[in-house]
Amino acid sequence: MVHVVAVLDLEDGAREQFLPHFRWLVPLVRDEEGCIEYDGTTDLPTSIVGQAPCRADRVTVIEKWRNVEALEAHGQAPHMREYRRRVKGLLKSVVIHVLEPAS
Hints:
With 103 residues, the chain is an alpha+beta fold. It has one domain (2-47, 54-99): Alpha-Beta Plaits. It is built from three helices and four strands, in the order βαββααβ. The protein has helices at residues 15-30, 68-76, 78-87, and strands spanning 2-10, 35-41, 58-65, 91-99. The radius of gyration is 14 Å and the shape is globular.
């Protein structure tokens, strides 16, 4: 199994414009061969000691894939190309962490 944490930093104030495009994408990705989990998250303020400051313009995507091949195919899917076209100009940066289980 492959885990992915994708950190999407949005342009200032772009969150409400970005989220409908992301919500359009989610069911299409979940239907992909090899997708185990695909969820977008936003920071949740709590009183937990040590929590990083909340960022209003960040979306973190938590993903699980059967294998690297499925993840690579995901990146080339037609709906991913359409999504990238739709959100162009709304994203400041994207950092993708591809991980494997440590245990």
